[in-house]
Amino acid sequence: MSALFELDAVAVARAGRMVLDGVTLRLDPGERLALVGDNGAGKTTLLRTLVGLETIRSGRLVAFGAERRVERDFREVRIGAGFLFQDPDDQLFSPTVIEDVAFGPLNLGMTRAAATERAEATLTRLGLADLARRLTHRLSGGEKRLVSLACVLAMEPKALLLDEPTTGLDETRLARLIEILAGLDVAMVLVSHDRVFLERLATRAVLLEGGRVRPASLHRHVHVHDHVHIHALDEAHGHDHGDGTA
Ligand SMILES: Nc1ncnc2c1ncn2[C@@H]1O[C@H](COP(=O)(O)OP(=O)(O)O)[C@@H](O)[C@H]1O
Ligand SMILES: [Mg+2]
What we know:
Layout: E1 5-14, E2 17-27, E3 32-36, H1 43-50, E4 58-63, E5 66-67, H2 75-80, E6 81-84, H3 97-107, H4 112-125, H5 141-153, E7 159-163, H6 171-182, E8 187-191, H7 195-201, E9 204-209, E10 212-216
Parallel strand pairs: 3-8, 3-9, 6-7, 7-8
Antiparallel strand pairs: 1-2, 1-4, 4-5, 9-10
Helix pairs in contact: 3-4, 3-5
The chain binds adenosine-5'-diphosphate (ADP) and magnesium ion (MG).
């Protein structure tokens, strides 16, 4: 099976310091790879490297069947791999949601009508049809995150690079995100600190530490939870839990 991405001893420096220092890693079709590591470990840098936003100092990157090195090599990679940025404000720049989601398809050469139709279909699939005419800069953080995902999915990528996609999502939207991603037949790199998210989705995990990656395991511990569940009390219908509480 040929890998979508294959890195061999890749080194990348930022501000003069080696952030990636010999990363060897592959992403195969159908995999959902969890990429974990401390703040500042270089997870974002690694995702950026996959789409040519960082310069490789040494080592080799093969993506979608060809070695990629210089800027023009990465055009095809950026179409094939959708990158959900850590900060949605880096992703969204159009006045309205529908324009933002249609931007990628337009850029792929679709007509405005076809791109708008694609954008509407994508928003509907994500349960976001109501947001289509909203002003992007007025959305909440969680809404921006999901609209960013719509922008990425509207391009119908072969691989998804998701940089902390659960940040700012409430429980309902987190569950929706997991359901959406689980239903996609697309390879993914999942960068997240959210254990529930990773345990539900990841098929494999690696840890980025000291500029290198090594295999990691996502433990399915039985935890003793000490947390508070918050439920809305439905006063209008006043349900009875059968134990005297409402
Ligand atoms: N724009 C930047 N310029 C210079 N150094 C940066 C920049 N962004 C991140 N870095 C540095 O690169 C290292 C890795 O950062 P990053 O890839 O963002 O880590 P992570 O995503 O794992 O938190 C950190 O030491 C960080 O300070
Ligand atoms: Mg990061």
